[in-house]
Amino acid sequence: MDIGEEHVPELQSLRQKVEYMLEKTFPGQKVSGRTFAELVKERGGSLSHSYFSNILAGKVTEPSEEILKALGLGFGVDWRFFKEESEVVGDVVAGLQFLAKRRTGEISGVAGRGVDDDGLSAELLEFALSLLADTKAKQRPDAVENGEPGS
Predict the structure, then answer these.
(1) How far apart are CA 24 and CA 90, in angstroms?
(2) Can you give the pTM of this predicted structure?
(3) 41-68 pLDDT tens trace
(4) Rg (alpha carbons) of the chain, rounded to whole number
């Protein structure tokens, strides 16, 4: 999956999704199972540190809906992201990419007219990120010569 300029790995297994969310939610940080379990507890959920460690070890592949909801609370995303073959994965990944670009200042002054409580769709976020990539490529004269996106 490509979103904007960044290639996003295929997120098939629960372990892959949790590892991806750890990397994107806590960049550059080593988050222990105990720390994550405490975060889930603070947000009103319940998840044992050992169960979280078993997810990261690939020992847990089909958790209950309650565990998925606890993961969603801990990472601050829709719990359905962690379900198998989730339709929500694209939305969450696009949203994370959008937020990362927003934090770095690559995107600013966003106004959404007619956006409902669910926010922007994954397709709209991907489109916005592709526009950003095109604009950046056009601002760099060497992008055309190197065959980069948007050229």
Answers:
(1) 14
(2) 0.56
(3) 999 999 999 999 999 999 998 899 999 9
(4) 17
